[in-house]
Structures are given as C-alpha cells and as structure tokens.
Design brief:
Layout (H helix, E strand, L loop, with lengths): L2 H12 L3 E6 L6 H9 L13 H4 L2 H4 L5 E8 L7 H4 L6 E2 L8 H20 L5 E4 L7 H7 L4 E2 L5 E2 L7 E8 L28 H5 L17 H7 L15 E3 L3 H4 L2 H6 L12 H4 L3 H4 L4 H8 L8 H16 L5 H7 L5 H28 L5
The chain binds iron/sulfur cluster.
Length: 371
C-alpha cells in the first residue's frame, strides 16, 4: 500500500470519518480572506488578523511544507425533541458543545496520526497539527482536499455527512498524493456538491442577518460570536434577535438541505444528547454560582464564556422569553457581583416589564422550528 493510503487508512482506524490530502500552497481564497479582514468582519477576534499571509499559506507555518492532511469527524448525534428545542423557557446550545471539548478528543488523535506518519515515512519529516488551534484556513484546505465544498454559510459541507463536522489538519514536509478538489461541472450526484445552487436558506434564516452576501459572514452580527467571542456587553439592537441561543448558534446549519439530508453520527462518539444540557432551563441557569458553573461545564467548551458570559446570554434569552415568571430570578441576577450580568439582567427585566406576556407569544411564534 502506498504511504498516502496507509496514512488515510490509519486516520480512519483512529476514528476520523474522512480524510484527504491537498498541496501545501496559498489558499485560492486568500484574497477574499484579506478583504474580509479589511472590512472588519472578524470583530474583536484579533488573532485572525495576526499575520494573515501565514494563516492563508501552510508554507509560512512550516517551511518546506509539501502537503496538508485534512481530517474530519462528524459530531451529529440526533435531532432534539421539538417540545424541548422550541421551548422558549430553555436556552439553546450549539450541537458541537453538547459534551466534552472536541479539542481534548481530536488533538490526541492528530498527535497519534503524526507519530504514525513520522514512523512510516522512515525519515526526519516534520509535522504540525491543529484542530481549530492554529493559523490555518481549515475549510478551504479541506475543500481543496476534496472533502466537500464551502457553502454560502461559509461552512464546509461534506457530501455524506453535512456540516456538523469537526476539522483538523496535519501540515507536513512529506510529499504525498493529492486528492482532487470537487468539481462543480461533473454531472454525477456526488459531484454536484460543488455548489449550493440557487439555495439561500441559510442566508434568509439567519436571525441577525449576519451574511451581507453569500459566502461572507460578518462575525460581529453572528450569534456564535455574540454569545462566545464577545466578552463585553451585547449590542442592544441585536439582543432581541438572538432569541434563546445562549452558546453558539446552528440556525444556518439547521435549515441547510445538505445537513438535513445527510447528517449522521460518525464513528467517534464523544457527545451525547441530554436535553437538560443541550437546552437548559434558563431560570435554573441564571441562578448558577461559580461552583455550579464549574461542576456542570467541566471539560466542556462552554467554559470559554466563563460564568459571566453564559449568565449574560441566559439573561438575554430570558428577556426574549418575556415571561414575568422570570422576574424574581432576574432581580437576583441584577444584584450579581459581575457588572456584565447585572446590566443584562436589568435589560431583561425592562424587556419583560415593558411588553409582558403579549410579547412572549409573538416571540414563541418567531422561534425557529426544530430541525
Ligand atoms: Fe448552501 Fe443552501 Fe446549505 Fe446555505 S442552506 S449552505 S445556500 S445549500
């Protein structure tokens, strides 16, 4: 078996669902990326603007890099029950965060694969591996490795698994056999994944209208950014649009026909569906102290927001629920030592008191249907 095939075989054996190889060269979309940065669409994620040439070219990360091995792992488990997912008294957590932090699972797998490559190559080869942790345009690279196409929602869509997938990369100075990027001109069914066609569901469904045009995301409007990356106060005009998303957002994936049709669990299952974790009761969450937070979210990516970020988001979701039942817990949160929580809790109380139950009914009707 050729070395490239042995590496691919090993990747699947380790638990990845798909693997492909692309040449290590500047991303064909590098200039789109520079333009995106110039427009300030990365918001306060300053690391994305640090040395963009390096991020768009693996040879700047590893001199003499020849190949990039892209791997992926599906994190789809199941669709939540509509009565849970559509309940506005519960917060919604993006699927990738329904359990253990994916970095902790995928990094050791990449490390093992890197060691295997070094062992098999029988020479002093160099590797760098990343899972969302390094200067790599991972979706473009995966697409170049023939693993799918980048949709109008800017996510990689795999032909057999949709877009609920984690991606990882190994950059190496080893010369391997490259896969073909998908062609949009071939007529067979699988090859048609090279395009979204006339579909624009993800753009139209985005609650905060975060896509100014297809294939471009203004992160500053994206609910994932607002609930996770933004550390301070959420802009007032965006709060009502966030509905009950409290950590990330899957709205643009939930409506995608590729996701609806092809999502299926992968071979490495480390997430699990627990309704009280995936969609926690907001009135319980807003009462969490530091110990509760640490206990519930230990080992989860949700620790990224810290308690103050998650309770800020829960307060916004309670304000959007609009039910007076939430006022006592919000009043308590409005006295929290964290100014960020106090401010958002006070906003939520005002929302509920100004509009009351009537508003709650309107919001209920505007919530996204369960996938
Ligand atoms: Fe493409 Fe439609 Fe999926 Fe958006 S929802 S990524 S436009 S196929």
């Amino acid at each position: 078996m050729k070395l490239t095939d042995r590496i691919k075989y090993k990747a699947i054996e380790l638990g990845f669902d798909f693997v492909g190889v692309s040449p290590a060269h500047q991303s064909p979309r590098a200039h789109d990326y520079y333009k995106w940065l110039k427009q300030g669409f990365h918001g306060n994620m300053k690391w994305l603007a640090n040395d963009p040439e390096r991020r768009s070219n693996p040879t700047k990360v590893l001199p003499q890099a020849q190949s990039v091995i892209s791997v992926g792992l599906s994190y789809f488990i199941k669709n939540p029950q509509p009565e849970i997912w559509n309940d506005p008294s519960r917060g919604r957590i993006a699927r990738y965060a329904w359990g253990q932090d994916y970095h902790d699972v995928i990094e050791p797998m990449l490390k093992t694969l890197s060691v295997f490559i070094q062992h098999e190559a029988g020479e002093e080869i160099k590797t760098r591996y990343y899972v969302d942790t390094g200067p790599v345009l991972e979706r473009d690279i995966a697409s170049q490795a023939g693993l799918g196409f980048v949709g109008k929602n800017t996510l990689l869509i795999h032909p057999d698994l949709g877009s609920y997938v984690f991606l990882g990369e190994i950059i190496t100075d080893l010369e391997l056999d490259f896969d073909e990027p998908p062609s949009s001109t071939e007529s067979d069914h699988k090859a048609q994944i090279g395009t979204c066609g006339n579909c624009r569901r993800c753009l139209d469904v985005c609650p905060t209208h975060a896509f100014p045009v297809p294939y471009i995301l203004n992160s500053k409007l994206c609910i994932s950014y607002l609930t996770i990356e933004l550390k301070g106060s959420i802009p007032l005009k965006l709060r009502p649009l966030m509905k009950n998303w409290i950590y990330g957002c899957d709205a643009c994936q939930e409506m995608c026909p590729w996701v609806r049709r092809y999502s299926k669990p992968g071979q490495t299952r480390f997430l699990e569906y627990d309704p009280d974790f995936a969609a926690p009761r907001l009135m319980d969450l807003i009462k969490f102290d530091n110990d509760d937070f640490k206990k519930r979210f230990k080992g989860s990516p949700i620790t990224r927001t810290k308690r103050r970020g998650l309770l800020r988001n829960a307060a916004v979701a309670l304000g959007n629920w609009g039910n007076t039942e939430a006022i006592p817990v919000l009043k308590k949160a409005a006295e929290d030592p964290e100014p960020l929580i106090r401010e958002h809790a006070a906003w939520a109380i005002e929302q509920i008191e100004t509009s009351g139950e009537q508003r709650s009914e309107v919001l209920k009707g505007s919530l996204l249907p369960a996938p």
